[in-house]
Write a structure and sequence with these properties.
Length: 247
């Protein structure tokens, strides 16, 4: 579980994005299918939003706790942020079952909690799977194919039967769908390539990676994703791409 959620884009929710009273609708997305960003938040702000009754405010708090958890170097403190956000998102998903964002945040924050408390990780897998599955049914394009990306990572990283649900062949299909929905999202292609490699489809994995060098550079993706891309390309395609993209 440890790496499965590190590569996912942070869920940065803007206040007041949804139409008042439309609690069952997802928060409005940016034109490219990603969730809108907002400035770095503080725990005091998250607590204030969490105390409000409006779903948008509570989901914004959940997104803030996700950001705090990701940035927190202390594992215990990061776990506390993740659990706070997880409770808010799960409550939102239960109260408003047609809200894709609530389910997506619930899956994401449960993943963060599992990452920071590995001893409980396997027990949280069914929650992550179910919440991501519902989000994928309601709004598969959310956060650039995020629901399918979570499912792909989960199936790729979790132990297989009978211990857990791990299945690299099923992971291939979820990443394939994420790439179909957002072909230029780097982590979709990296996950697809990794799952193909796990299923002994190295040549196909290399073809999946090739387009990355047309739209990704260190200046426009995270350093972790860039390093991951370089490592994969060199190990799968047996060569290092030039800095300008391609060979």
């Amino acid at each position: 579980m440890a790496r499965a959620f590190i590569s996912l884009a942070a869920l940065l929710l803007a206040a007041g994005c949804a139409v008042h009273g439309a609690a069952n609708a997802p928060l409005r997305q940016a034109g490219d299918g990603s969730l809108p960003e907002f400035a770095p938040c503080r725990s005091e702000q998250a607590d204030q939003w969490a105390a409000e009754q409006a779903l948008n405010a509570r989901l914004r708090a959940a997104g803030c706790f996700a950001r705090l958890a990701e940035a927190e170097p202390d594992a215990g403190r990061g776990l506390a942020w993740a659990k706070k956000g997880q409770r808010l998102a799960l409550d939102g998903a239960e109260q408003y079952p047609a809200n894709a964002t609530a389910h997506y945040l619930a899956a994401y924050l449960t993943g963060l909690a599992a990452e920071r408390e590995p001893v409980q990780g396997l027990s949280l897998v069914p929650i992550i799977q179910e919440q991501a599955r519902v989000a994928a049914e309601l709004s598969p394009s959310l956060d650039n194919g995020g629901p399918h990306r979570i499912l792909g990572e989960l199936l790729l990283q979790a132990p297989g039967f009978p211990v857990s649900i791990g299945d690299p062949f099923a992971a291939v299909e979820h990443f394939r769908e994420a790439v179909r929905l957002a072909p230029d999202h780097v982590d979709n292609r990296l996950g697809w390539a990794e799952s193909l490699l796990e299923t002994d489809q190295g040549e196909q994995a290399c073809r999946v990676l090739e387009p990355v060098w047309k739209f990704a550079q260190p200046s426009n993706i995270s350093s972790a994703s860039w390093k991951r891309a370089l490592r994969l390309f060199n190990s799968i395609c047996k060569r290092i791409p030039s800095e300008s993209g391609g060979e």
